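Appendix B, example 12.
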Amino acid sequence: MKTFSGFPSGQVRIVGLPEAVFTELVPLINDLAELKLTLHVLWRLGRQTGKVRYLRHADLLQDQVLLSGLPAPSAATLEQALARAIERGTLLAVERPTGALADALYFANTPKGRAAVEAIARGEWPDELESAGRPNIFTLYEQNIGLLTPLIADELRQAEQDYPAHWITEAFQEAVSQNIRKWSYVRAILERWRTEGKGKDIPRRSDDADRRRYIEGEYGEYIEH
């Protein structure tokens, strides 16, 4: 049996979920894969920012933390768990206009999730979807490197201010492709791109964008602003 070494000392990031997850939803779930998928997806959605939050089918297929925790770590097990979560009503699924499975989007069954799915069903494409769904820097770190420490968390927050979001994602992808899963390596890539240039530069976040991160942040999916 693999054992848990305990929570680290010092400050740790807190995960916020609606009380109904534990009082109403979890008691209904009798399948381990569905339970793990449900908690993992809600956690990932909670880490996003923005008014509309979703995950792509491809995001889940590439999520090694999720897949490794399933009873049978395979795409087939993931598909079965997704089907159960959708049938239960925990998740809402909608396909992009291409109709390809890899382009399916998954929303939590919240008022905002339902509104987004209804808009797509009417043939509309909410502007917010273009910027939603991207894992933030904390999620990228935990999925590809390991547990956060307070010191690293401070560095990651600063990096989010200093670099465009897609640079950060691509830098993590580059580090993983080189099998060098260290923040120092990711940071070096970003610093090199800033010094030497990387395509079309995108300005640093504006003050307005910073303020939106607070009101559309970790708990924004479950509260009205």
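The first strand starts at residue 55 and ends at 56. Residues 180 and 186 are 9 Å apart (CA to CA).
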